[in-house]
Amino acid sequence: MAEAVIRVVGLGKSYATAAGLFPALRGVDLTILPGEYIAIMGPSGSGKSTFMNLLGCLDTPTMGDYFLTGENVAHMATDALAKLRNRTLGFVFQGFNLLPRMTLQDNVALPLVYAGINKEQRRQAAREQLDKVGLLKYAESLPSRISGGQQQRVAIARALVNKPQLILADEPTGNLDSQTSEEIMRLFGDLNAEGITIVLVTHEPDIAAHAKRQVRFLDGKLVSDHLTEQLPC
Ligand SMILES: Nc1ncnc2c1ncn2[C@@H]1O[C@H](COP(=O)(O)OP(=O)(O)OP(=O)(O)O)[C@@H](O)[C@H]1O
Ligand SMILES: [Mg+2]
């Protein structure tokens, strides 16, 4: 069997609050293999973003283990973690998170700055990804110049610029109308067809139906895990 891209075992996260420790994630086991396309669903507050932030190495767990491409990252030092994160995965946010005073090309190139790639190579790589999402003509524009759906495409280009094997997206269509959402989902479908593993959070069954596998969170636990084709319509 191929090595898992993601394997979490008993993963938990408790937040320190004024009222004491709050267990947002309470022991999740999940394995995701290369090339999978998985949607995470569940009500507000069920721990989806907490889980995604752990998968994206944006936060550290308080319990359990997380193996990212076979390496246990749960207790990895910050700089080693940043390197692994940078070469392994791209993260797409609901709010696009583009830097408003930087051109789209420079926004897309940003992860390569952190990876120590030289300027000309950054420029070329960013333009290649902008072309892939159909927005090369806006390379020198600022984010405010383009629509929300286009901004999300740029954010996806930024997530792809390091050629990661894994894309994590937390409600990537949450701020988009349904037609634009479908365009974004087509893009994710194309990326998955190229072999990129995709994990996305959504509230919408129509969006989740694009994924091949759907899991559901409730009260910080994973309560169901099905292949989309086996779900009742
Ligand atoms: N930094 C934090 N400090 C304290 N509690 C937090 C923090 N972040 C999240 N929580 C709590 O943890 C629980 C899970 O939050 P999380 O954001 O993971 O839910 P979610 O499933 O992504 O919800 P939504 O669908 O609304 O985005 C919630 O009760 C939330 O209030
Ligand atoms: Mg959330």
What topology emerges from the helices and strands here?
Layout (H helix, E strand, L loop, with lengths): L5 E12 L2 E13 L4 E5 L6 H8 L7 E6 L2 E2 L5 H11 E4 L11 H11 L4 H14 L15 H13 L5 E5 L7 H16 L3 E5 L3 H4 L4 E6 L2 E7 L6
Parallel strand pairs: 3-8, 3-9, 6-7, 7-8
Antiparallel strand pairs: 1-2, 1-4, 4-5, 9-10
Helix pairs in contact: 3-4, 3-5, 4-5
Bound molecules: adenosine-5'-triphosphate (ATP) and magnesium ion.
The CATH topology corresponds to Rossmann fold
Q: Note the gap between the termini.
A: 31 Å
The outline comes out as globular
Radius of gyration: 18 Å
| Bound ligands, each once | adenosine-5'-triphosphate, magnesium ion
In terms of DSSP E residues, the strand content is 25-35%
How many helical elements? 7
CATH class: Alpha Beta
Write up what this structure looks like.
The structure is a single chain. With 233 residues, this protein is of the alpha/beta class. The protein has one domain (6-230): P-loop containing nucleotide triphosphate hydrolases (Rossmann fold). The chain has seven helices and ten strands. The strands form two sheets. Strands 6-7-8-3-9-10 form a six-stranded mixed sheet, sandwiched between helices. Helix 3 (104-114) runs parallel beside helix 5. Bound molecules: adenosine-5'-triphosphate (ATP) and magnesium ion (MG). Adenosine-5'-triphosphate binds next to strand 1, strand 2 and helix 1. Adenosine-5'-triphosphate binds at residues 15, 17, 22, 24, 42, 44-50.
